[in-house]
């Protein structure tokens, strides 16, 4: 937890004052993590009633931004009743529903909204992104042409438009993120000028890259912060907000397990581990080889030869009865034997909480929050 707090502190220090840092809770909502981040973040981005309630109960003092592509009436009502700091509206019909609810729900002050837009990003701008939520047909946010249709709905409502939100891609390095931020803010400025709208703030999203292939290579927060400072200077009067998830908490978690067996099949070596992608679905979801370290243990007590390999590529699998239960394929490991331990790095985001825990009914791992 001290490493996480130090990392978050470094990220915060790299950002100019006029950039707000929200944590995208879906990356890892563990209460210990939310609390460790609290001194370093401006607020939290939540995307369901479950997250909203959980975060409000865990860190009640910090503001929330409530987003998500499919919000139910009950969720919007809850967001209004609890007075979240911002609601990110993703379509005209959602705007109509929110405006209607704002007439019924007693609110202390006008609910403040950002319109989420799906902007064209220009060819090549999202190349290399692991996931794209924008710049192509997606259910996330409004097409820019639909903005004009939203304005009469806003004008006749109790809602207050504060600006725009765009989260277009995940997995971009700092230069690509900055180019995207520039595009988003420029578009927002032009749209605000054209329609005479306030542009108090622009939320430029998250998606800062985590490189699982080279976990020692970190996102260039210093360069990104300097670029955002220049961008903010060109738009005085507009607060910029970012909402990273993975790049804040990914590095702080490890998934440690033991090797149950090592065997060969048709000439290839497999290390079968206790646990599996029902605990750590990240490599299956992202189709990568998850980074790990083998921790050798010399306490083999069984009276027969210890299964193991030395100096050949190994595929690391789990206990699930499916060929998709793979952590890493044909990777060089040096030595690995039954009874050794394997520690998977970068397991602090989109790990346990995106995994299919009940598949095969194996026990859950234990969680330790150290430091
Ligand atoms: C998931 C998500 C984020 C965080 O993305 P990361 O890749 O974890 O940084 C931020 N904003 C929105 C709207 C999201 O859906």
Largest sheet: 8 strands, parallel, barrel
Average the pLDDT over all residues and give the rounded result: 96
The CATH topology of the largest domain turns out to be TIM Barrel
The ordered H/E elements are: HEHEHEHEHEEHEEHEHEHEEHEEEEEE
Q: Which blocks of ≥5 consecutive residues have pLDDT under 50? A: none
> Which CATH-level-2 architecture of the largest domain?
Alpha-Beta Barrel
Ligands bound to this protein structure: pyridoxal-5'-phosphate
Q: How many β-strands, per DSSP?
A: 18
Overview of this protein structure:
With 371 residues, this protein is α/β, with parallel strands linked by helices. Helix content is 29%, strand content 22%. The protein is built from ten helices and 18 strands. The chain has helices spanning 2-14, 31-37, 49-58, 73-82, 92-104, 147-155, 174-195, 221-234, 246-249, 282-286, and strands at residues 19-24, 43-46, 64-66, 86-89, 112-116, 131-132, 160-165, 169-170, 201-203, 239-242, 255-265, 268-273, 292-295, 308-310, 313-317, 326-332, 335-337, 341-344. Helix 4 (73-82) crosses helix 5 (92-104), helix 5 runs parallel beside helix 6 and helix 7 packs parallel to helix 8. The longest helix has 22 residues, at 174-195. Pyridoxal-5'-phosphate is lined by residues 24, 26-27, 45, 67, 167, 170, 205-208, 243-247.
């Amino acid at each position: 937890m001290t490493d996480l707090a130090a990392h978050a502190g470094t990220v915060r220090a790299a950002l100019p004052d006029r950039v707000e840092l929200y944590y995208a809770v879906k990356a890892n909502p563990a209460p210990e993590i939310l609390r460790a981040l609290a001194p370093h973040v401006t607020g939290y981005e939540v995307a369901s009633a479950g997250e909203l309630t959980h975060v409000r109960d865990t860190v009640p003092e910090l503001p929330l931004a409530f987003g998500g592509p499919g919000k139910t009436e009950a969720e919007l009502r809850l967001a209004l009743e609890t007075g979240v700091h911002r609601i990110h509206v993703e379509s005209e019909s959602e705007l109509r529903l929110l405006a209607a609810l704002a007439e019924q729900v007693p609110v202390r002050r006008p609910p403040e909204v950002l319109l989420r837009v799906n902007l064209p990003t220009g060819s090549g701008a999202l190349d290399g992104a692991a996931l794209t939520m924008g710049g192509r047909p997606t259910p996330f946010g409004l097409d820019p042409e639909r903005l004009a249709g939203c304005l009469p709905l806003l004008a006749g409502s109790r809602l207050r438009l504060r600006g725009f939100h765009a989260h277009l891609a995940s997995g971009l390095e700092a230069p690509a993120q900055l180019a995207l931020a520039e595009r988003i803010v420029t578009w927002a400025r032009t749209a605000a000028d054209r329609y005479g709208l306030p542009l108090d703030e622009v939320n430029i999203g998250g998606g800062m890259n985590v490189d699982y292939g080279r976990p020692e290579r970190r996102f260039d927060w210093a360069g990104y912060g300097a670029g955002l400072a220049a961008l903010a200077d060109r738009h005085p009067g507009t607060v910029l907000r970012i909402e990273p998830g993975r790049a804040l908490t990914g590095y702080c978690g490890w998934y440690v397990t033991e090797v149950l067996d090592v065997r060969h099949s048709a000439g290839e070596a497999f290390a079968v581990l206790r646990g599996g992608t029902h605990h750590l679905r990240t490599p299956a979801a992202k189709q990568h080889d998850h980074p790990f370290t083998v921790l050798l243990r010399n306490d083999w007590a069984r009276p027969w030869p210890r299964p193991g390999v030395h100096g050949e590529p190994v595929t690391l699998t789990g206990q699930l009865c499916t060929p998709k239960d793979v952590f890493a394929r044909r990777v060089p490991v040096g030595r690995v034997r039954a009874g050794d331990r394997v520690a998977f790095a970068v397991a602090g985001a989109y790990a346990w909480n995106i995994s299919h825990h009940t598949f095969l009914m194996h026990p859950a791992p234990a969680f330790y929050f150290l430091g």
